[in-house]
Structure formats: structure tokens, C-alpha cells
Amino acid sequence: MTTGTASPATSPPAVVPPSRPAWLRDLLVVVGYLGLAAVLTSAQWGQPGRLFHQAGDQILFEWMLAHAAHAVVAGDNPLHSAGLNAPDGVNLMANTSVLGLGVPLTPVTLLLGSQVAFCVAVVCCLAGTAAAWYALLRRRLVTTRSAAAVGGLICGFAPGMIAQAGAHLHIAAQFLVPPILALVFRPAVDRAHRLVGVWRPGIVLGLLLVWQVFIGEEVLVFLALAAGVFALGYALADRVAARQLAPALLGRLAVAAGVAAVPLAYPLWFQFHGPQHYSGMAFATHAFQLDAASFTASARQTVLGDDWLPGLLAPNPTEENSFFGPGLLVLAVVIVIWLWRRPLVRALAGCGLVFALLSLGTELRVDGTATGIPGPYRLLAGLPLLDLAVPARFALVCVPVLGVLVALSLDRVRAARRLSAAPGLPVRLLWAGAVAAALLPLVPTPIRVVPVTPVPGFVADGGWRPLVPPGRTVVAVPPVTGAAQSPAMLWSARTGLAFPTPGGYFIGPSGPDDPAARWGAPDRPTSVLLRRVAETGTAPVLTDADRRQAVEDLRHWRAAVVVLGQLTNGDPVRRTVDDLLGPGRPVDGGWMWDVRNQVG
């Protein structure tokens, strides 16, 4: 007889649920990165009256994104704009124009505005950098997805990356660094596959270099230096492998240089010789260095951060490029000792140490006190290109070094568990706990925001249009030219560069015959006067000479209307402009003076 219960010999095999496809698990990792980046920018989504804490820098990059979109639609020269710093314009190739971000984001900028485009760019920079490192780790360096995911998390969301993301898109956008490195340091190939191993990757590498130049040349300079130091360290650690890899590597670089030279020839000429080019730097870069104690401290925008200590150890909130905390540094030392036999680890350790020392600048500082001990950067400070580098940013090279080291360690523990017959779960748990303990203090908090004065309705809604003929400008009060919040630049960005305006936040020459770099254009007397009133709240006694000078300055700016929005000391500023130009009239969001008859 048969029964309702099958015997073991005849039982059907158990159904094993299919595992998720590899691509889906990779996608989940990337979605996680995107979600974290969205949370970190959450304080600004849907808040047009807020900017990230380095508000002047966000205004700059909003304007650059708006310019890129305007250039795509209108067919204007993307390397120069007359929409700012009227009448001379701005050499955008000589500034951080981030065309490599702005052009792809054109649909976002046109549909949703410059602020949303900036926030989308920040999310893409952080998540894209993490995802790119995850892909490189997963394909080349580790076998476990979890190890690659943690490594990518460190590379994309370390304190230095968060600090830069709120202000400097060109520094936070490092998503091309991993593919560039992957193409430069490819595995060895035989002569029969030279086309695959040299020419094809060389061509792609050249195109990526062009894209990186149009995102930010500074990251490319740091990448070249770091790759050189790493290659030297690897060659010292494994001479045989280095000799095998060198011919193909040099061949790829030669092909890439040839490919990149063609599209970059004119833009680089324009940068150094085009209209409004400059020489030198507008600020003392050597002063931007890190304190040695910053490497074990907590950054402002972490769960353990505060405002007091980081202010002593970094030049400003945007340059908190180290701040790894003691746990991660101790963990890195343990990993290097543990995996020292691997040439890759020795090369990474040497590279990270070199750039950490360079970030300390020309004189070592500890806990805010100058020690008088020369820093290693002093040896390089006079070299071309490096004399313009910000020493504090060298510490950003340590971020992927630490990320890769942690990923290698997690992968090694997992591999040892698979290869060993002894129970390995406690070791895995202990090491995972150590990594978690080192990383938890570095968990980032949402990027801080500050309020910003809204664009006057008269400007935003186009009330100025009937009053501003072609070739004339809208002058915002006070006219700001330099490293500060520029109302005219914000108004221009938020309206899609609808009107030209004087002033702005950019780097340009000191004068027609003086190419020395300075923030903004040379000041006009009326600019200085109105900024002083805005800062002090005191309206001065004016003379006829002041009034004649105001008309002369407005004529230089080719002004049609002067507009005053909301200011803290708005009333004394309004009374001063009334005294200079005659009574203004109230408009939506401020006051307006029609100066077409006075300027002629």
C-alpha cells in the first residue's frame, strides 16, 4: 500500500529560492549611496531661501550650472561669458566652470532651476564617487560585494568629501578617478593583445581626461601626482611586475595624451591667453594647511563633530579634508602591518603617508600651535602648478587609500574564512566590529544650511524687461565683486542668466595691464561706497563729486536699472542710493531706480 507520506528515497528535492542576480545586488548598493547622498542634502530640497553654509561658493556654482545650460541652448561661447562682470566678462576656462557637470545637467537646470541642479550635482558627485570606487574594488581588487560596498562608502562619504560637497563641486566630483586609474593600471597583456591592452584603453583614457579637465583640473593634478607616487611605490615593492607592466602603461598614457591634446588645445590656450586671463592665484594658497591633530579629530559634519575644535585644526569648514578619527587610523596601521607582504598595500601606505605629510603645509602645526618645524610641502611649494595648490587638499588622496585598505582587509577576512576548515565566524565578527567602531564616529550629518535673501519678484518675474534694452545691464545693490555673496550673481543664476550684470564672484586680472589674479574686477568707487553702507548701516554725507562718480560708474557698467532687494541695512542703503541717483520707486521685493536718462 502507499501512504500519503513519501519515503526519503522518493521525496522530491527541496526547492532552493533563486538568489538575486548580481546586477540587482550591485544596483541596491548604488541606490543605497544615492539615498545617503539625498539625506545629506535634505536641508535644501524645496527650500529656495536656503543655501549650504558656504553660501558664496554655492552661488558661484549655481551660476556656472546656469551658464552651461544657457550656452547649450543659446549656442554661446562656453569658455567666456559677458553675463557677469559687465562690460568685460569672465574667462570661465580660467575659473571653476564645471562644464563637465553643467552640460549633462542642462535639462535639470532648464526645467527645475539652478538650485535644484546644484543639489542634484552634489548627490551625483557623492554617490557617483562612491559607486565608481565600488565598481573598481569589485572588479579588480576584492571578491566580496560587502567589502567593496564599505570601501566605496568610505571613498564617497568621508568627512573631507562631505566638507567639499557643500561648496566645491569641482573637488567633490571624483567619479572619474576610479575609471581613470583602472585604465592606467590595467593587468599585463601579451603582444598579441596589444590593441586591447594599449590602444583601446588609451583612447578611452584620453576622453576621460578631457571630461575631467572640464569638471576640474585640480583633481586631475592631484590624481596625476598620486598615481605617480603610487606607481613609484609599487615599482619599489615589486620590481618584476613593474617591469612587465611599464611598457603597456606608458603606451596607454602616450595614446591618451595624443587623444586629449586635440580637444583641449584651444580651451587651454583660452584659459592662459584668452580674454580676462590672469596669472598666479587670488589668495595665499600656502596658508590653507591642516593641523597634524586634525587627522585624529572629528569633523563638524559628523555625529561626534562640533564647531570649536575643527575651527582650530582646519583653515575653514570646507577644507576639513582629514578628520579621520583615531579609530580609522589605528585600523589602517593594523591593516598595513597585517597585509604588508602585498606590494599593493605597501604602495598604498606610502602614497597615503606622503600626501598626509604634504597636507601639513610649509610649517608643522599641532593643536593650533606653530612648531617651527618645516613641512615637506616646503620642498614643492615653488614648483609650477604645485605653487598654486591648496596644501590642505592633499589629504583628500588619503580618503581612497583608507577606503581601499579597509576593503582589502574585509575581503581577506572573508577569504580566510572560506579557505580555513576552522570556525571563522568569531574572527569575522570581531573584525567587522572593529571596522564598524572605526567608521561609526565618521557617520556624516546633513550638510548645514544658512538663509539667503530671496530674489526680488521684480527680477524673478521679469518686471525689469521693458526697462533694459539690449546691451544694457541690471545693477544689484550693493554691487559685489569678490569672494563674497553676490546678489547679482544669485539673481542671474536663478533667472537663467536672463540679464547681464556687473560684479560677481570669480577670479580675474587686476586690470587691463596687470594680469595678477584677484577676486572679481577692480572696484569702482560707487561699489566701495555702497558696500560700506550695507556693512555698517551708516549713510554718509554725499557730495556732488560722489553723485558724478556714481553716474560715471553706472555708465561704465552700461546700467539701465539699479535694483535693491532685501538687506539687513536696507533703509540706509536705499537712502544713500536716493541721494546719489534721485528717488527710486518700490517694486515687488525691493526698490528700483531707472537710470537710462542719466547714463545716456
Characterize the structure shown.
With 600 residues, the chain is an alpha+beta fold. It has helices spanning 22-40, 55-74, 99-102, 106-112, 114-141, 145-157, 159-165, 169-172, 177-184, 194-215, 217-237, 239-273, 308-313, 325-338, 343-358, 398-419, 425-439, 457-460, 487-494, 525-536, 544-557, 570-581, 596-599, and strands at 50-52, 80-81, 90-91, 363-366, 369-374, 449-451, 473-477, 507-511, 514-519, 559-564, 585-587, 590-594. The strands form five sheets. Strands 7-10-12-11 form a four-stranded mixed beta sheet. A two-stranded antiparallel ribbon has the order 1-6. It has a two-stranded antiparallel ribbon with strand order 2-3. Helix 2 crosses helix 4 (106-112), helix 11 (217-237) packs antiparallel against helix 12 and helix 14 packs across helix 17. It is elongated, with a radius of gyration of 28 Å.
Topology:
Layout: H1 22-40, E1 50-52, H2 55-74, E2 80-81, E3 90-91, H3 99-102, H4 106-112, H5 114-141, H6 145-157, H7 159-165, H8 169-172, H9 177-184, H10 194-215, H11 217-237, H12 239-273, H13 308-313, H14 325-338, H15 343-358, E4 363-366, E5 369-374, H16 398-419, H17 425-439, E6 449-451, H18 457-460, E7 473-477, H19 487-494, E8 507-511, E9 514-519, H20 525-536, H21 544-557, E10 559-564, H22 570-581, E11 585-587, E12 590-594, H23 596-599
Parallel strand pairs: 7-10
Antiparallel strand pairs: 1-6, 2-3, 4-5, 8-9, 10-12, 11-12
